[in-house]
Each structure stands twice: as C-alpha cells, then as structure tokens.
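Batch manifest, entry 17 of 40.
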Amino acid sequence: MAVIGRRIVADRGVGLVQSPVPRGRATVSGLAAAAVTKVARAATRFVLANGGALDPLAALRADPRQAVQEDSICCLVCGRVFRQLTNTHLRGHDISAPEYKRRFGYNRGRPLMCRALQRLYVERAVRSGLAGRIRRRPILFEPELRRLGGCRAIALEEMLTRREARRRAGRLGGAVEATTR
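Output type: structure tokens
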C-alpha cells in the first residue's frame, strides 16, 4: 500500500484501487482496507484450489460468486472493489448492467452490490411496504412471457450453485447410508 499525494493506492492482488482518503482513515473506494483484503483472500483461495495457475481476477471470473463479499463487490472487468457496481462505473467499461451479468454469468436478478448493502435495501423496502405498492405483474400483461412458460437460460452462477448442492447432497447421502449400516 502506498500513499500518493492525497490518494491511497492498494495492490491486493485484484488490481490497483484508488480513492481519496477521507478524514485520515485509510479506505479504498469507500471501503475499509479489510474488505479489499477479504476479496483478495477469496481470490487467493480459489487460485490455490486450482493449482495456482490463474491470476486472482481470472479466478474471480471463473466463479463470479466469489466476487460478491459481505462488505464489497469486485468489478470483474477492472478488478476495483466497491460496495455497489453502479451504471456509471459500468458505463466507463462501455457495458450495461444486463450485459455485465450475461458476460460474467450472473443471474439476471442478482443485485450488483455487497450483501450488507443488499440487506439494508431489503429492510428499507419491507419497512416502507414497497411490495404492496407494486400493482402491475408483467406476466399477466405480456403474452410473450406467458408463452415462454418460465423457460430461461441458466447462468454460470446458478449452474455452479446447483453443482455444489448436488455434491453436498451426495456427500450427505453417503454419510447417511454409512451410519445406517
């Protein structure tokens, strides 16, 4: 980590991240340095699990779920760490949020924000009664959606999650059989 003028530059294995330093606290893109370290550790664990052949950003691209942490999300284009990937940031890469999700295999409904921020927004929506104010259900008004009948492409994120669930169920099933004998 190096201080350049009033900016802090941190190389945590996922790229260089720059942010102004507010009131003497060392932060990176509005995050504590610990959040950046968490993303770097997740990428490092993935690299070590795969024989160390991949660079950390490639490791996060291979399993995009690892880029979303409790307090941060790592941009899989540039490697910078944020609390939320905004349209403004993505526009800098000439990409929209749906294109970003499609390119890196996220589910269409995945919010591009850290888990803590997502929980905050959910709590706020529940408190304000947001669901009760939504009146239009697209599937009722758009015949094309009904015709598709729930058919959709399965994203990389969903495929990886399903694979892990099957593996877990297989391990648990084998353990149950061994204990019943």
